[in-house]
């Protein structure tokens, strides 16, 4: 049966403010968020997720498969009906193997195309905005090197989008030098629970050229 497009309303207009980390998100919406613990992670992100649900926006969560049950429990405990959200298409709950590690390996071009497809599908469903939350520990799996992660994160800034994308990093899993480079690939950062413009951000063309002499053409 063909799915009926999701009906939008005025509160979903793309120019409506997006609140997170104690402030309102601006036009740059590729965010790295650093957390010390699971409680820290959900304490900051759950209000952002709840706000999106109450506004009728689509939520796409790409989670660590070992934490999927916990993630569902946290959402339900916050008053989000996960089962209902999945049935009506408002919530898409994916695991790393569905996106970043599809086929058991990481391929940046393939991943970008998958994310673009998710966005197109959301628009076809009638959602005007998608709120992405991604658990980023997939980058320390044996399937992918840190260089692949950094190029992927930097190149994401070459294609602006009104959809907020939160790349959630738990600090215990990443070395200090990697954290610094991750910060350099995101224009906005959440640290200590506070959202702020990132003073360490490097424009993607410059970052990619600096690391690998990368041709900075916009990925398709």
Outline of the structure:
This protein is α/β, with parallel strands linked by helices and 220 residues long.
Write the layout of secondary structure elements.
Layout: E1 19-20, E2 23-24, E3 30-35, H1 38-54, E4 58-63, H2 68-77, H3 82-88, E5 91-95, H4 108-125, E6 130-135, H5 146-155, E7 165-170, H6 176-184, E8 188-191, E9 194-197, H7 204-212
Parallel strand pairs: 3-7, 3-8, 4-5, 4-6, 6-7
Antiparallel strand pairs: 1-2, 8-9
Low-confidence stretches: 1-5, 7-12, 214-220
Summarize the biggest pleated sheet.
Answer: 7 strands, mixed
List the helices and strands in order.
EEEHEHHEHEHEHEEH
Give the rounded overall mean pLDDT. 87
Looking across the biggest beta sheet, what order are the strands in?
5-4-6-7-3-8-9
- Structural class by secondary-structure content: alpha/beta
Radius of gyration, in Å, reads 17 Å
Structure, described:
- The protein is of the alpha/beta class and 220 residues long.
- The protein has helices at residues 38-54, 68-77, 82-88, 108-125, 146-155, 176-184, 204-212, and strands at 19-20, 23-24, 30-35, 58-63, 91-95, 130-135, 165-170, 188-191, 194-197.
- The strands form two sheets. The protein has a seven-stranded mixed beta sheet with strand order 5-4-6-7-3-8-9, with helices on both faces. Strands 1-2 form a two-stranded antiparallel ribbon.
- A hairpin with a 2-residue loop joins strand 8 and strand 9 (194-197).
- Helix 5 (146-155) runs parallel beside helix 6.
- The radius of gyration is 17 Å and the shape is globular.
């Amino acid at each position: 049966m063909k799915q009926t497009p999701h009906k939008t309303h005025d509160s979903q207009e793309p120019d409506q403010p997006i609140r997170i980390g104690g402030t309102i998100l601006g036009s740059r919406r590729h965010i790295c968020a650093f957390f010390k613990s699971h409680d820290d992670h959900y304490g900051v992100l759950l209000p952002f997720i709840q706000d999106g649900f109450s506004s009728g926006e689509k939520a796409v969560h790409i989670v660590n498969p070992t934490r999927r049950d916990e993630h569902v429990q946290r959402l339900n405990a916050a008053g989000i009906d996960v089962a209902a959200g999945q049935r009506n298409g408002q919530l898409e709950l994916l695991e790393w193997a569905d996106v970043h590690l599809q086929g058991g390996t990481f391929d940046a071009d393939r991943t970008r195309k998958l994310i673009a497809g998710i966005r197109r599908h959301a628009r076809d469903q009638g959602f005007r905005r998608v709120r992405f939350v991604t658990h980023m520990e997939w980058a320390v799996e044996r399937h992918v090197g840190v260089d692949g992660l950094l190029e992927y994160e930097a190149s994401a800034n070459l294609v602006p989008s009104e959809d907020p994308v939160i790349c959630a990093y738990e600090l215990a899993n990443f070395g200090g030098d990697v954290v610094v480079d991750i910060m350099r690939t995101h224009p906005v950062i959440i640290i200590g629970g506070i959202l702020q413009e990132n003073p360490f951000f490097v424009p993607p063309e410059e970052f990619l050229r600096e690391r690998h002499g990368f041709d900075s053409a916009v990925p398709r």
